[in-house]
Amino acid sequence: MPPQLKTLLPLLAVFICLFLVARHFLIPESFGKYGHYRANSMDEIAALPIHYAGKSVCVDCHDTEAAKLSSDLHSGLTCEVCHGPGAKHADDPENNKLEKPGTREFCGRCHSFNAARRTEVIHQIDIKVHNIEKENCIDCHNPHAVWEMKE
Amino acid sequence: MGNERVNETRRNFLRKSAVLAGTLLASSASQPFTAMIFAANQPDKSKPWYAIGIDIEKCIGCGMCAKACKSENDVPKEPFYYRSWVEQYILKNDGTLKVESPNGGIDGQKQSVPDEEIFKTFSVPKMCNHCEKSPCVQVCPVGATFDSPEGVVLVDDKYCIGCRYCIQACPYGCRYLHPEKKTADKCTLCYHRITKGLNPACFEVCPTGARIYGDLNDKNGVMHKFLKEHNCHVLKPNLNTGSKLFYNGLSAEVR
What we know:
- The complex is a heterodimer.
- Helices cover 41% and strands 5% of the residues of chain A.
- Chain A has seven helices and two strands.
- Chain B is of the alpha+beta class.
- Chain B is built from seven helices and eleven strands.
- In chain B, a hairpin with a 5-residue loop joins strand 5 and strand 6.
- The longest helix of chain B has 29 residues.
- The chains are: A mainly alpha, B alpha+beta.
- Chains A and B meet through helix 2 and helix 7 of A and helix 2, strand 2, strand 4, strand 5 and helix 5 of B.
C-alpha cells in the first residue's frame, strides 16, 4: 500500500464514523419498520379529527326524525348529506347548530333535470318551473318524508 | 486461425444473447403485465386490503362527495385543490367530447349543453386510485409517500419536501401541493375514519350509494360482490398501475 494512502486511512475511518453517527440521528425512529417510510406517520394520519359523525351518532338523539326518514324515499340518505358535517354539533349541540337547507338551489343539486342523471335512479324536476308560487322546496315537502305534503 | 476466433466469438455472442433473453423472459414472468381486475396483489393476506368501487350508473353528479371531502379533510376552499371531484362527460351529436367540472362539482353540476345536442352524458366521480404499483410512490425521493399495509397510499407531511415529483407522476391527477403546508396532499381514503370503523366522508354522504369500499381479502365482502356482479374497469389500465378504484359502466372516453 502506498504510504500516502496509509496516512489517509484514519481520516477515512473518522469520516465513516461521523457518517454513521449523523445517520443514526437523522433517520426518524420508525423509518423502515414496514418499508421505506416513517411508520409513525400512519398513526399521525389516523389520529386526525373527524368532522362527519355518522348516522348512528345522529340517531342517538334525533330518533323521531330518523324514524320518519327511514319511512320514505330518502331512507337511503345519511343525515349529514343535507345537514353537513356534524361531529362538532354532536360534541356540543347548543353552540354548534347545523344547517337546515331546503332551497330550490340546494334540492336541485340532486333533483333538477340533468341528462347525466338516470330517471330510474332519481326523481327530477325543473326547479325554475315546478310549483313556482312557493319559494322553497320545504314550503311544500317535508325532506324527512318527501311525499308528506304540507297544507 | 482467424476463422476459429470468429466462430468462438459467435458462440459467445449467442450464449450471452440467450442468457439475456432468458433473464428478460424470467423477469417478465415474475411481474407480468396484466389488465385483469386483480392486477393488484395484496402483499399480506392477514390484513385488510382496501379497494373502491364506483357505480357510474348510480352517480347523479350532485357533488356532495367533493363537498364533504373538502370539509372532512380541511382541503383549502378555493378552487383547484381537490382530493375528490366530479366530472361530467358530454358526448355531443357532432362527435365532440366536452368534459366539465365547475369548481370540481362542490357546488353541484349543471347541464351546460341542451338535450338536443347530446348523444350521451354521464358523471364520473374521481379520486385517488390507491394503486398497488403507484407511480407517485416510486418517484418520491425521500420516502414521504408510501403504500400502507392496508393498500392505502398516504403522504407523510412532516417528511415531504414539496418537490412535486409525485404530482407530475400521478397519471390520474389526484395530487396537489397544499398551499399552506407546501407539501403534497391527496386522498387518504379518510384513513383517520376507516381506522375508527367509519366510512370515508365521500361514501358517507353519497345519496344514491354509488360508492362502496371494502376489503379485497374478504371473499364474501362487498367488494367481491361488486366486482362479480358488475362489468368493472379501471382507469388507464395500459399504465399497469394496479389501480384499486373499480368503475362500473366506465365508458372508454373517460381519461
